[in-house]
Structure formats: C-alpha cells, structure tokens
Amino acid sequence: MKILGISAFYHDSAAAYIEDGKIIAAAQEERFTRKKHDPAFPTHAVQYCLSEAGVQLSDLDAIVFYDKPLLKMERLLETYYAFSPKGLLSFLTAIPVWLKEKMFLKRMLYEELFDIQHFDKKKVKLLFPEHHLSHAASAFYPSPFDDAAILTLDGVGEWATASIGHGKGNTLSILKELKFPHSLGLLYSAFTYFLGFKVNSGEYKLMGLAPYGRHGSKEVEQYKKLIREVLVDIKPDGSIWLNQEYFNYATGLRMVYDAKWEALFGFPTRESESNLEQKHCDLGLAIQEITEEVVILMAHEAKRLTGSKACVLAGGVALNCVANGKLKDAGIFDDIFIQPAAGDAGGALGAALAAHYIYFDQARSIDASKLDAMSGSYLGPSYSDKEIEQMAKENQAKFTYFDDFKELSAKTAELLAEGNVIGWFQGRMEFGPRALGGRSILGDPRNPEMQKKLNLKIKYREGFRPFAPSVLAEDVHEYFECDTISPYMLLVHGVKPARRKEMPANYEQLEMMEKLYFLRSDLPSITHIDYSARIQTVHAETNPRYHQLISDFKSTTGIGVVVNTSFNVRGEPIVCTPADAYRCLMRTEMDYLVVGNYLFDKKVQAPWEESDAWKKEFVLD
Fold first, then answer.
1. CA-CA distance, 578 to 599, in Å (whole number)?
2. Quick one: 368 and 220 in the same domain?
3. What residues contact 24, with CB distance under 8 A and at least 6 apart?
4. How far apart are CA 155 and CA 135, in angstroms?
5. Are residues 322 and 362 in the same domain?
C-alpha cells in the first residue's frame, strides 16, 4: 500500500510518503524553496518523497490531502453570515481567493501533480480526511501505544479548533470537538499579535517571553482575572468560549480589536521590534498559565472519556512545550507522545496514515524495540560525499576530510569545549520545526557567553530567547527533573536543583534584560530564567552520530549536554542542503561547519563575496 500525503495552501506546506504503514519520507516545502512557512503546493517536497521511495505517482494507491476544503468554505460563509454586516471588507478579500483556489482544489491538485509526473487519475484515489482527523492520525499511529487518548489543539481546521479522540489498534474515533470561533490556539495567537510578534510563527517567542513575567505577582494575577472575566470563559471540561466583541479574526483582517485590548490591559499593541517591558512579560506569563490550565482540564476530560493510560497530542498548540511539560508532570496519564511535526506540516503525514488505517483498514503493529515509528523524525533528504565535495568545489571551500568519523567527532567535541560555535549537518533532515541533531548549530552549555553569542552573532535574533539542551538519553536524570524521554524537544522540565545557582535577593525587581545574564546554573547557556530547559534526549538508536559527538564532549568535559539550536538565521528556514549550510557559515560568525565527514574551518575560507542585502531576504519571524 503506497500513499502520498499532502498539506498545502495555508502555511507550512509539506508532503509525506508511507508504504505498508511505514513512514518512508516527509519534508516541508520551505526547506527547498527557502521561503519560511511556504504555503504553496509542495512540489519539491513531493518530488523528494517520490525520489526517496523510488516510486512514481502512477505507483500510488492514494494521494491524500489533509483537510476538506468545502467544509472550510461552509465555515467561511456561515461565519460571515452570522457576523454580518461586520467583516464585509474581509469577505470581499477572501471569497475570490476561495472561489479560485479552494472550491476547485481537486482540479488544482491534479494540475500541480501532473506538472510533476503524469498518471492515470482513475487508478489513484484522491482522498480528503478532515483536518483534525489528520492531526489525530499523525499523533496516534506513529505512537508506541495500542490504546491512547488523543488531544488535538490548533487555531482552526474546517470547523473544529480542538478535539478529543480515542485510538485503539488501527481504529480512531473523535469523541468531542470545540468549534470555531472558540479556539485556544487563536486565543494564544491573539496575545502573540498584541505583544508584537508574528501570528503563526511568533507563538514560541511568547512562550519564551513568559518566564520573564513575575510569577504570582499582583500584576500577573490581575491580568489573568481580566482574561477570565472579559475574554474567555473556561469550562470544567477544558472547552472555552471567547468573547467575540474583543476578537477580529472571525471576519476581519486582524486578530483583535486593538482599542478594546488597549482599554482592557492599559497599554497599546506592541510594535514589532520595539522594546519589551515588564508589562509585556507579565501579560505573556498570564496567557501562558491560562493555556496550561485549559490543556490540563482538557486532558482530564480525555482521560474521563477514554480511560486510556496514554495520551498523544498534535496540532499547533502541542508545540507549546511548557504546557506539555506541565501535562506530563500532572500525572493524568502514565505516558504521552507528541507528534514532532505537530503543526500543519504534520497533517500531510497524518492524512496518509488516516487513509492507510481507516480508509483502507490495514492492520497496525507496534515495534516494541523502537521509541516510536517516526525514526527520530529524520525523514528528509541526506547528501553523499560526492554532493558535499561538489558544493565545496563550487564555493572554492577548504575542508579537512576524516576517514574515521570517530576521529572527527572527537575533534568536534574539542572545538566545542574551546568555545567554538559549530554548524552540525549530518544524515537526513528533520521533519517538523525542531532541529534535532541533523541540521543544528551547537555550542558549549557551560559557557556563560554562549547564549548571547548565538543570539546576537549567529542567529541575529532577540537576546531574551533561550536555547535548548541536547542530552544523552541515559544521562538526562543527572541534569534535569525529567523522568521520561524527550526525543523531539517538546517537553520543558527544570534543571536539577543541585546544578542551580542562587539568584540575588532583588532579582524579581530587575529589568528584563538585567535578569538575562545572571549565571543560573552550571549549564548557563541552556538554563532559562525560571531554571527550566526545553530538553532533547539523544538516542544512539535513532541518531548514532549525534550521540557519539555528545559522548565525546562528555569525555572531554565531563558534561553529557550540548547547546542545540536550529541551523538557520532568524527568519530563514532550517538549512536543507550542504550549500545552504556553507552559506550560513559564511554569513554569520559561526566558527566551524561539519558536513558528514568534512570539517570546514571558517578562518581559512576565501572571503565571502556577498553584501548584507541577504538580511532583507528573510522576513523577521
């Protein structure tokens, strides 16, 4: 059974290919086009998946699109009707696009696919599962559980904005749904907008900003009181009702009515890139804590409805790793699994899996010897020595080749221990928003200057943003308050108290940026200001080269942890090819690049003949 899944035309377009239920390949279109969150038809991703699998479109049993466009059209029309005459401008803007693209989506899909390869469309089924079913399938079927509750939370699909489901064997049922316009994802995005970050990409910044809020302070508690009393009514089962007098997303062109929010919270919508003040941090903490509260309530309801011991999550809100950590710590379920490509990109994979197990009713088996069926999420393209050397030749790049990878790994560990920043490009590219040691920038977590250096000289981004640790899975208990694996960097847990350093007595009264550079632990570059860390456990069975490097770093320093951030500059998609990686090396103050068995030293490269105009190429995220 050969199935291709596609997500497209909203944001984070992607393609995924499965064969007899096994996930063979998956990639986001942005990585090939270099347009972040590219919503276009994923031509390059489809071509990659077919090439990786060695199949043609004519070999497929089905091509599956991740949602039902006619249901979305129904929601659009009913919403405008319900809110009329408000939203006329938005209606006139949206409807022509929908009529052209979404109403004739089947024809559009065939045209795009025929541009790749011609095939007999009568012999290949074209299927359209619902959006939240695709999310649910992406979480349950790759999980290591035969029985699990399913939570999907995002902005909106067709009508559903959140759902509770139950997976058992090869079956999957949706038990309960929250409907548009009431949405936890859209509520969080509204605060993302109000606090000056970009909707659909800046939510993780809001999550990183929240710990700068003053926990338990009267300001934070007052903000939470206002949110609960005016903006959102939270029900005991985790469902919510949003006061649409304050939100503009249903029919307008903005997330909120700015003047009403200014009157409610006492300050205006923050301008992008303007200074962050304590009030912004406190409001960020308030909405983060309310989000966590809703997720926990919904998890209790999922437990009540299913009786399952495990829970799986997908949808954009499932990328809120702080809430995920709180859910794990709540002990509602014995275990949880979060789809690493939890957003719309993962819908391509979920659509394919839903077709395989639900439409075609194929049997499901779980390999107990594996963490899950995602192969560490290393599902994108890899590159040969020949391709790496061709890139070096084209750029007149100087390198050292190592016949023995262990020798290269030991050398790289030494360079990290000396304070160097290293681009690490190995094997297959990750599927999903997190760099997991395939396309990563690495540093020494003991170095108190590493966070500042990475933010300001490599990533060109705000200094407040934290960096994640990659830790040997077998050593995670030595460094973090974590009793589980976290292979996809989707859980936040505390740094062990024994590793923490006491903050000064006046710490809570300090300005935001003054708080940033205090030494909070003996691993300062990965310890956020609330002593937390977004953890990636590294497993020898899914990424032996990355595991080897961290093991060598431990042999050199005594610490089995490295700083890991995505291999890109701010506003750019994560690098895909060796050429992307070399370009990033030369554009930044990175010190070394390791691609496969090749080591590139920045100091000996020819001058990079390029102006700073490239910085305008990427829209700030």
1. 12
2. no
3. 17, 18, 49, 52, 53, 379
4. 12
5. no
